[in-house]
What does this fold into?
Amino acid sequence: MKWLAFFLTILFVGMTAGCQTADSPAAYTDISGEELHSLLEDGEQFLLVDVREEEEYEQGHIPGAILFPLGQLKENHALLDPEEAIVLICRSGLRSAEAAEFLSEQGYDRVYNLEGGMLDWPGQVVQDECLP
It folds into this structure.
């Protein structure tokens, strides 16, 4: 019986070791479209990084956003300045959350995920082709 209690304790500790608690700091910060739009209008400076694919980007993106698809971001993140405030953008907020988590794990401190992605973006959207 003691072995069973010991085993269950070890199993519980192992399962919860990687969990984030309420006291743990967030690896990145979610930001709403409204909040980001307001900050940009007030002159706040962010590096806007769109992690969608080229076709999605060309259909419409936030003015000033650079295209850096998620797969390329993971391979070439060192091209980004880890000291700069970075907002990651995708269609719905899922890929950008994955990118935000990845950059945070790589030591980037000022990382924001556009919660709801382009679907919840209230501001201007521009359509143009990517630069080579």
Summary: Confidence is low (pLDDT under 50) at residues 3-24. The longest strand covers residues 47-50.
